Amino acid sequence: MQISFPEFPMPPRRHTRRVRMTRYDLEFSSDAAISIQSMNNCPASDIEANLDQLARLKAAGCDLSRIAVPDRASLSSLERIVARSPLPLVADIHFDANLALGALEAGCPKIRINPGNIRLDKLEEIAKKAKSCGAVIRVGVNSGSIRPALRREYGAFSAIALARTGLEAAERLEFAGFDQIVLSLKSSDPWTCIQAYRYVADHCDYPLHLGVTEAGTVNEGLARSAVGIGCLLSEGIGDTVRVSLTADPVEEIRAAKAILKSLHLRQGVELVSCPTCGRTEVKLSELAGRIEARLSELDLNIRVAVMGCRVNGPGEARDCDLGIAGGQGEYLLFLRGEVVSKVPEAEAEDALFRLIDEHFRKEA
Q1: How far is CA 274 from the centre of its chain?
Q2: DSSP-derived 3-state class of residue 281
Q3: Fewer C-beta within 10 Å: the chain N or C terminus?
Q4: Max CA pair span of the chain
């Protein structure tokens, strides 16, 4: 008897208001695709280094990037970077409200302010300036900079204190007549992030920028980000994401795309490869690494399997658009569920990409 399992679709995206970077036709809302962000790690004074990094981020699939503006000397560089940037920029502002005003005057289409370290009585002035410039404001709270009064009331690093800090600042901007607001609530602890975002999801309609801050190096940071960001996205919460890694910012884009693709929230090339075991009879790890690198350069929406044994390999390969399954020095090639040929191990990689060229590049 065949057993059928009902499908359990993901919940719909939480409804959020439309917040737009009009000049770049980039929208943050439940009606728009979930965008991917990063943050430049060059000093603002190094204009060419920032532009080079922005070009690499765009090529990797980044939608916008943030740049630190720590002092007034950075503002003149920021203006020149904005004028030549291939991506929309977000000026990252802390402590000094005048830097926020200066970044807006420099043409930055979006600014990030941290209500935990900037004077709240300056928010009205910032709101009016942002509105006159047609800019977006991200209210970005970190667990290390929660407002002292809320920290005393709810406890240090509390998810509720994190959420309330963000909501109170957003309400001040709204009171000043500004509504183009994105909200983020970041902690290095994924569970704190999850609780904070769930709380604000029930109390406002702002688009939410998801992230786990100070997540760590590539391995640790990707795992913690996948838990925090992935959990929320699976609940329909989140409109834009940044995976924070102690690494080249381009790695953040690759990680974010992988998280979104794993939940079917973004299309692209998806690689399925087996973890290897004692049954593996071919040099699968090296082969999968080479194939992954070549696939990353393709702008296609396909699912590719690279499998290394005869137990699950053929079945997994049949479930993908195309794939290879190896054993005893040779590979079967699959296309849309059917075996199309058998090749020696040394020829498997090139044979796979010939299939891609013949059957999928033409369709694209």
Answers
A1: 25
A2: coil
A3: N
A4: 73
